Amino acid sequence: MPATTVFGYGSTGRPETFHYPAFTIEARYGRTVQVTWVNQLVDTDGRYLPHLLPVDPTLHWANPPGGARWRDSRPTFPSTPGPYHGPVPIVTHLHGGANTEESDGYAEAWYLPDARNTPRGYARVGSFYEEFATKSEAKFGQSWAPGEAVFHYANLNRAATLWFHDHALGITRLNVYAGMSGFYLLRGGPSDLGEGILPGPAPRLGDPPGTRYYEIPIVIQDRSFRTDGTLFYPASRASFDGFKGPYSPGSDIPPIWNPEYLGNVMVTNGRTWPVLTVEPRRYRFRFLNGCNARSLILKIVADPLGHRPVPAKLALWQIGSDGGFLPAPVQRDQLLLAPAERADVIVDFSSALVGTELYLINEGPDVVFAGGTVGAGFPAANTKTTGQVMKFVVRPLVAADTTTPPARLTLPPFEPLGAADRTRRVSLGEVASARVPGVSPREALLGVIGPNDKPKLLGWADPITENPAVGSTEIWEIHNLTKDAHPIHIHEVQFQVVDRQMLPVGGRRPPEAWERGFKDTVLAYPQEVTRVKVRFGQAGRYMWHCHILEHEDNEMMRPLRVGRP
User: Fold this and answer.
1) pLDDT tens digits for range 351-372
2) CB count in 10 Å sphere of residue 54
3) Are 112 and 118 within 8 A, CB to CB?
4) Which residues are within 8 A (CB) of 271 and not within 5 positions of it... i.e. 6 or more apart?
5) CB atoms within 10 A of CB 4
6) 510: Cα within 13 Å, side-chain hemisphere
7) If we measure between CA atoms, which residue out of 176, 172, 186, 93 comes closest to residue 132?
8) Where are the beta strands (DSSP E) in 384-461?
9) How far is residue 524's CA from residue 530's CA, in Å, rounded to a whole number?
10) What is the pTM of this model?
C-alpha cells in the first residue's frame, strides 16, 4: 500500500527524528528533563495544516473558533456542521509522571501552531495556558513562546515504563490516532535493578548499525487504512450504530463522534504485523496498549491461525506494571492490557530451535472489552487481522546470556501505601439521547455516589468534586454502572489496587497478582466496584478519566484539584 501520512513527534531542526511512534525519551531518576513541546503542524509556508481526521466541532472541546470567551466549550449550531478544518490544538501529557500542574498536559492548556494564517478571532491557547505559562516561568525562568509549552519533569518517581501522548480537550482520540505518542523510560534510583541483571541493552542514541537489542519497548495500536494508504477514522455517527440524524439542531447526538472505534489492522511500533529476529535467550519487552478503545489479550503461540484460545508456547514473566517493578515476578500465559496499561515482561526463547517461528497474537475481542474469557464470554479478534500482532523468528545465539532467570529474580523493595484518610465514592455512567428514543450513548460521564447511594453524573464543566488534601491517602471506590470495562487513569499519582466487588452486593476479591504493584490505570469492570488506594503528593489542578479515548473526549473526564476546593 502507499505510504501513510501521520502526525509525529521529533526534534526541532532534525527532520530525520520525526517518527511514529516518537523516539523514546530516556530519563534518569532525580535528573530533571526539560522538554519544549512545539506545535509545528504547519506547511513549508508557515500556514496551518488541517487535521488528518474528521474533527467533530459539536463536542465540548478546545473550540478555537469560539475565541477567548467560548474556547473550551460546547458550541451550538443552527444546522449540522461539517468537520472542523482549522489549526490543530495540542498539549502533551506524560502518562504516569508525577509532575507539577503546569507540566502535566492539562486538557484546557492546549495551544495552536504559530501559523501565519490563523483566522482572526480564533483562540490561540486554552483557558489555562496563560496561567500555567506564568507559573512555569516564575519557577524555572523559561518563557513560553507562541505555539510552544516548556514542561519540566522532575523524575522522582519509581523507575518505570511511562509514555507521552496528546491530551487536548475533545480531540485527544484523533491526535493520538494520528500518531502523537511515544515511550518515556525512567531508569535508576532505589526502585531499579543494576546493570546486567535484566536483558539489555535497549536502543540508544548513536548506536552503530547492527547493534543487537535485548530490551525492546513495544507499543501496540489498531488502525484502519484506505486503499490510498491514508488513515481512516469514521466521519459519521452512522458508522457506529447506523444513526444518520437528525443531528443539530434536531437532536442531541453529535454528528461525527463515535462512542468507540476499533481499527482492523494491528500496528506495532508503527509497522503493520512486523517480524522481529530473536536469539535463543531472554528478552525484556515493555508492552504498552496504545489503542484508542481496544483491550488486548496477548499470548505467544506457534500457530497464529489456531482455534481460540490457542495454547501458549512460551511463558510471559511479568516483572513490572504501570508504576514500575512488581513485588515479585508473575508467570503468565497471557497478558490482559486495557488501553494505556503497560506490562514489563521477560520472555525466554532459549527453548526454541533456530529457525522456529512464533507469533504474538491477540485474543481480545473486536469490540470494547466487558470482561469474561475468550470463547465463553466473547468471540476472539479476527484470527487473520486483529488477532495477530507480530512474528518472532529465532536465529543463532550471538553471545551467552548472563542475565538472571525471571524465576530467580529479586525485585527492588516495594513499600505499600499506608492507611487511608477517607473513602471517596465515584461513578461511571452513560446517558442516552434525551430527544431521539433508542439512540445511545449520547455521551459517557463520570460522577459521584451520593449519600442515598444514587449516582450523580457530572460533565467536565461541572464544579470540582474530587479535591483531596496534599499528602492525603484516599480509597477511591469506582462504581461502574455501564456495560463496558473502563480503564480509569488518575493523573499525577501511582496507586494500588485494593479489591473488586460485584454490584449490588458481592464478595470482595483481591487484585490479580500482576496488579499488586503501583498502577496509574485500572480496569473497572461493568457492574462492579473497583477500589484503589491513592496518595496525592502535590498541589495542583489535574484530571482523572476513562482512557477509552472516545469516552474521554465526550465528557468521561473530570478535573481533579489537589490542595484546595
Assistant:
1) 999 999 999 999 999 999 999 9
2) 17
3) yes
4) none
5) 18
6) 5
7) 93
8) 388-394, 422-431, 443-449, 455-458
9) 6
10) 0.98
